[in-house]
Fold:
Amino acid sequence: MSDDSTLSKPSVLEVARQDDGEFVEPLKLGKRLKSIRLANNLTLEEASRLTGLARSTLSKIENELISPTFQAVQKLTAGLGIDIPQLFVPPEVGVQANSRRDVTRAGEGKPHPTTTYEHELLANDISQKKMVPFKCTVRARSFEDFDDWVRHEGEEFLLVLSGNVDVYTEYYEPVHLSEGDSMYYDARMGHCLVSTSESDAMVLWVTTR
Structure:
């Protein structure tokens, strides 16, 4: 059983002098952990699921009630997708990174087929994304293949990876795009894609939230 004095003792990491010779505020590991968690838009429950550490343990670490073991630090970095130094080094003054990263290997995206498109959702291990990237195989060959316009919140970027497509939008004439061509538009405007290639076209879509 841990001694109460040990539990109440904060884990404070001294930070080196800045170039101007002034000391920065000592960095507390719990505070740093909490800032990383919040930057990833994670609740304690979600962070617990990702790291395998109990919610109560994470709460005690964030509140400087206990110091994490090396094994706990390894679980934190693996679960949050960060490197160990990121827990101990404060972010530079200015724009702060949220420390998130996700790699999707070719063909390993989450499939989501529809009658007109076959989507491959990317970066699925990151929750609360500010943008949604996915590859799409365009099956549709005619505007009549769609029951209605596609509309949703956010803005959208489209890049043709292979083949050719015609992009229909609610307020513009259809535009023809070939491999390497791209388009950015308001996704609340009705839109849809049809493949004009002999084989299905492949596109990359990135949608903001």
